[in-house]
Amino acid sequence: MKRLTIYTMLLAVGLLGSDAWAQQYQLPSGVRAGQHRTKEFHGTGRASFHALKVGQSARAAAMGDAFTAAADDINAMFWNTAALTHIERFEYALGYTRWMVDSKFFNGAVAWRYGQQTFGLSIVQFDAGTSRETTPLDPQGRFTRDISAGDIFINFGYAYKMTDKLSLGASVKWIQETLDQDKINSASFDFSSVFYTGFGSSRLAMTLRNFGKDQELVIPGSLPQGTSIAQPLIYTIALAMEPYGRKGDPTYLTVAAELVHHIDDRERWHVGGELWVANTLALRAGYRGRYDLGTWTVGGGVQKDLGVGRRIGVDFAYISFGHLFDPPLRVSITGSF
Questions:
Q1: Is 37 helix (H, G, I), strand (E, B) or coil?
Q2: Mean pLDDT over residues 91-120, rounded?
Q3: Which domain range does residue 189 map to?
């Protein structure tokens, strides 16, 4: 269990580029080593299951994660369940992410609409790879074994179209985090909405993700009894619209922006855009504000209409992490029938 806690802390530091991590290497001007900036870092490190904060879907990533209000297809299963009501019949998605330090994400989702209701299922697997076990007697791991780590999330979603302007959604997630033979299991809920304002095509969206019970850790001799860690609760309010054209036109432009509040980190913001050309080629770009790594994003996609409501598409996204890590690369395949 102690190794699992250490691994969770490493995810928070190494994978997500938190401020505490950045401070270890480069202190902001006017801040001395050892000085604590209470307002800036309040809450950092409080949460567990940090892989939940890594966004899925190449389409969303290419738009700088500004996807909460822009979601209108199967990718809504990862961002805003309420937006699943845009699906006409049945849609599916498969995705792959080459993440940092040789780690990987795999995801899949399906959704089916029945009348005013839409039902969805998604699975996300995080593979952190293997590393050599070390002990006090063998700190180099020369005579020990390889250990593996990772996470898996299974999400069941439901969306209902209340009116022609308002949709509501909710989902429940089963979560498992693993380090070698140690495992932590938990569950969380997502709640979401999409509201069309009546001003052009503009819509507002709000989501509350990863709402669940704190996870209690029992490590004799290491932590006080009753020590618990919270789930990475995320609240988002977002806006999207088409300043040029309308959805379904051969060519149209979608722009989106959102504010994101993390329970264990500072507030952040995302902006992004998507231009469809001839309903076949998509060009995307975005910016993620107040991140230490991976601010600018670009990507694109192509789709083919197969007729009778059938469609297949491929999307990709690229994010530069500078010289510290190889750039993450995301690829997704989506389709409908």
A1: coil
A2: 96
A3: 2-336
User: Total structural domains in the chain?
Assistant: 1
Which has the closest alpha carbon to 332: 160, 74, 7? 74
Residue 285 near residue 98 (C-beta atoms within 8 A): no
Tokens (6 digits) for 204: 């507002």
216 pLDDT more than 80? no
Backbone angles phi, psi at 128, to 5 degrees: -85, 0
The one-letter amino acid code at 91 reads E
- Token pair 């002990």 is found at 135
How many of the other CB atoms lie within 10 Å of CB of 55?
A: 20
Instruction: Residue 124: name the closest of 45, 189, 59, 177 by CA.
Output: 177
Picking from 153, 243, 260, the residue whose alpha carbon sits closest to that of residue 200 is 243
CA distance 119 to 143: 50
| 3-state SS assignment for residue 252 | strand
Single-letter amino acid code for the residue at 330: R
Does residue 228 register a pLDDT over 90? no
CA 234 to each of CA 53, 63, 200, 219: distance values in angstroms, whole numbers, following the listed order:
8, 19, 29, 28
Distance CA 239, CA 145 (A): 50
Q: What's the CATH number where 175 sits?
A: 2.40.160.40
Summarize the confidence of residues 131-147 as an average pLDDT: 81
pLDDT score recorded for residue 254: 98
C-alpha to C-alpha distance for 34 and 25, rounded to whole angstroms: 13
| Mean pLDDT, rounded, for 211-217 | 82
CA distances to 98, 211, 253 from 70, rounded to whole Å, are 24, 22, 11
Q: What is the DSSP letter of 230?
A: B
CA angle 110-112-118, nearest 5°?
A: 115
